[in-house]
Amino acid sequence: MDISERKDFRGANLIKADLQGANFIEADLQGAKLIEANLIKANFEGANLEGANLQKADLRGANLSNAYLPGGKKTNLQEANLRWSNLQGADLIMANLQEANLQGANLQEANLHLANLQRVDLQGADLQVTNLQEANLHFANLIGADFYGANLKEANLKEANLVGANLQGANLEGANLEGANLEGANLYRALNLSIDQLSKVKTLHNTKLDEKLLKSLKEQYPDLFEVP
Fold it and tell me: What pLDDT was estimated at residue 182?
């Protein structure tokens, strides 16, 4: 499809379209239908995708840096394949990313406030300084993900898999960690983390914690440090 000069795609029907490598830099895609579209390595830098439907779209390696994808008008990325994509600085407030594949994706400084990330796959993803306040990460795969300095205030991490994840310097105030797997995770200098929160996790085996917190937890909840 020839889109070389076109920038206005508002409401466009691009369902299942082959747009691999397409240039959508700063394009207006408000309300566009991109369900199951081939968008491998497409460039959406600075594009407006408010209300766009990208359900099950293939966005592997796509550039969505600084793109506008808020979920307030039903922007939908459910089950999208965003593996190795670049979402640095993207606006994803309230976006629906349920069951999306974001393995190895770059989400540095993205805004995912109140986003739906249930059962999302973020294995090995870069979420440094990302805003995940009140985001829903229930059952998410977060193995080896980097949350350095991220804002996870009041985020739902219930039963999330955080094996080997880096949470150094992350704000975990009020975050729900019930049943979360923190084996081998790095929680050095994590902010606003309480004994009560950590007492509800699945395991703290080989978890890196500040010495004072580690000592108190081992005294009160020694079973959490056993091999799961």
Answer: 98
